[in-house]
């Protein structure tokens, strides 16, 4: 269970207030569509959040331009993290919905510098269904595109 969940209504959420300058943040970068700032939780030193400026709850609520710019900004930030912190690894994380691990319902992407024994764990219950099952899943998705 996440330790903290922001239940503010859209437009008054923590990140909307941060974008509006109503609450302080350690800002790294901004452009017309996105903003990057230090995560208050700093899982490792240099942990940055990249968020849309407009309130969109999840990735599924973004425009194609916002989604593309989120990743472009994440890439810029990742290059800066490499220059400034030089971590041996880097993980991007983007959570959607409470069950997806999202605690602030305003779309954002984590840029997390990674180090040996940094305490971050991610369980991934790998399964290997038969090829026919994979083909069925792909068919459902192609029909949905
Ligand atoms: P999520 O769990 O939704 O993927 O990530 C939300 C992140 O927002 C958490 O890592 C948390 O530390 C960060 N966060 C929550 N409130 C604030 C805040 O007021 N300022 C900043 N800079 N980060 C915040
Ligand atoms: Zn918001």
Automatic annotation (TrEMBL):
Which GO biological process annotations does it have?
nucleotide metabolic process
Q: Which Gene3D superfamilies match?
A: HIT-like
Query: What InterPro entries does the database record attribute to this sequence?
Result: HINT (IPR039384), Histidine_triad_CS (IPR019808), Histidine_triad_HIT (IPR001310), HIT-like (IPR011146), HIT-like_sf (IPR036265)
Species annotation: Diaphorobacter nitroreducens
Q: Which residues form the active site?
A: 108 (tele-amp-histidine intermediate)
Q: Pfam families, per this entry? A: HIT
Listed GO MF terms: catalytic activity
**Chain location of the short sequence motif Histidine triad motif per the record:** 106-110
Q: Which lineage ranks, top first, belong to the organism behind this chain?
A: Bacteria, Pseudomonadati, Pseudomonadota, Betaproteobacteria, Burkholderiales
Tell me the protein's name: Histidine triad (HIT) family protein
HIT domain ranges (all copies): 14-121
